[in-house]
Predict the 3D structure of the following.
Amino acid sequence: MRKALLWAAITVGGLVAPATVLAQGLMVSGYASEEFEWFQRTASASDPRTSRNYFDAQNFNLILLGQLRGDVFAAVEVEYEHGGEEIEFEYGYLAFTRWPSANIVVGKFLVPFGRFNADLHPAWVNRIPGRPLPNDAVLPVAYSDVGAMVRGAAPVGTSGRVTYDVWGVNGLAGDAGGSIRDMRDNVVDVDNNIAVGGRLGFVSSMGFDIGASAYNGTYNDEDDLNLRILGVDASYRRGSLEVRGEWMSASQGATDGDDLTKSGYYLLGSYLVRPAVEVAARYSAVEFPAESGDRARISVGLNLYPSDAAAFRFAYNINRETGSGVTSVKNNSFIAQFTVGF
């Protein structure tokens, strides 16, 4: 039970009802994953890994959680990716938790747009290794930013509760018309582009969780270009069955006056056929202004849980280029992953 409460606090990247976790005192936790990936042998100049097989120490993330004084709570995550090739300060924030219906969070935090970015991307939680296509290019995974946020929840009779997150952050920043994924890490706001956003959700006592998210801000101050992202997420859990999905669409200003529209969605289903055996499948797709960027992926997976702290995940990805007139590339892949939450 303690481990479940701890991971609830970790994956949210903020706090709604932390009193039980606070009672445990200062804790060091985290998660790690090791992967073997096989790619169909199609050479790629942009990513030479697609022409070979390799092992990858995907991540080893350390998380420090604790109560500083009274109602002030702190959380820090440092991630070591790809065997230490990349070392990042994922988040570090303070939270004032006196009012369960209005927690105040300041610092660097995972932006809770939708569910996947803040809650579901860690390997220990993610049912299929890797990220869905829209969470790679429309609202990039592990988007953390510096700013302030108010979040909380309020009961709605016996039917469930309403949740909300409202934030102001330095915002995504980058080149005009450029990749949204490359706009992260604007932690010192070099482009003077404060952004605002929020998510409003409803968690039903019948197992439904639905929400709508919005983000808006200037991403290129030199050309006064705006970026607006809208999203909808939903999930349903009943017994051994879980179904979830997200849709998002970005309207990105361009120097020629015509906004670029980038959109995508994913659907995921998982079923625990036995206490330690789970099957999962995910479909994801993206549509970009240039049809050559349209892609779709079908992922089928098998998860084995030898203990409550470890998982073996196996997934086969069928990748398709869906734009008209685009030649399909043989770039399917297989991933075997071992992940641990501690």
Remarks:
- The longest strand covers residues 54-69.
- The longest helix spans residues 2-12.
